[in-house]
Amino acid sequence: MKRLLSMIVLALVAGPGVAAADSLDGADRLLCSPVDVVVCTGDGVCEAEVPAELGIPPFVVVDLKKKVLSTTAASSESRSTPIESVQRADGMIVLHGQEMGRAFTWLMDEASGRVSLATVRDSVVINVFGACTPASGR
Asked: What SS3 state is found at 15?
């Protein structure tokens, strides 16, 4: 019960910190940024972390047509990850995928641009709350 209460309190504290974003309605290319990160381990411990300290880039390009997540051209790293599933329904965009022993799910609100995502690997869940906006460019 104590663990559950800790997670609820953490969610309430982390949730409001998400910055306002833009409408994603009709956009096929998005620019997303992490705001809050919470890492939970199999023993029930959850801790807030700084995105950069976990290797999470400050900006991620989400290309819904090409089904790929990638770092921006200005990033010091050139990383990309395929998206296996893209669904748009009920005002939400849902992404699923897996790579290198990790699975991920993104849930984006098309009206507000807010994003919640989880990356899961053996006994660790990384929860990220952030904001997305339509991206221009190629």
From this structure: helix
Phi (first) and psi of residue 52, to 5 degrees? -60, -35
pTM (two decimals)? 0.82
Question: What structural domains does the chain harbor?
Answer: 2-134 (2.40.128)
Supply angle C-alpha 114, 9, 47, rounded to 5. Answer: 80
Q: Could you report the per-residue pLDDT of 45-57, keeping only the tens digit for each? A: 999 999 999 999 9
Which residues 6+ apart lie within 8 Å of 17 measured at CB? Answer: 35, 36, 129
CA angle 27, 105, 64 (to 5 degrees): 25
Q: What is the CB neighbour count within 10 angstroms for residue 4?
A: 9
What confidence tier does 67 reach under pLDDT thresholds 50, 70, 90? very high
Angle at 87 between CA 84 and CA 91, to 5 degrees: 150
Structure confidence at residue 3 as a pLDDT band (50, 70, 90):
very low
Q: Tabulate helix, strand, coil % of the chain (nearest 5).
A: 15, 50, 35
Tokens at 55, concatenated = 């290797």
pLDDT score of 136: 81
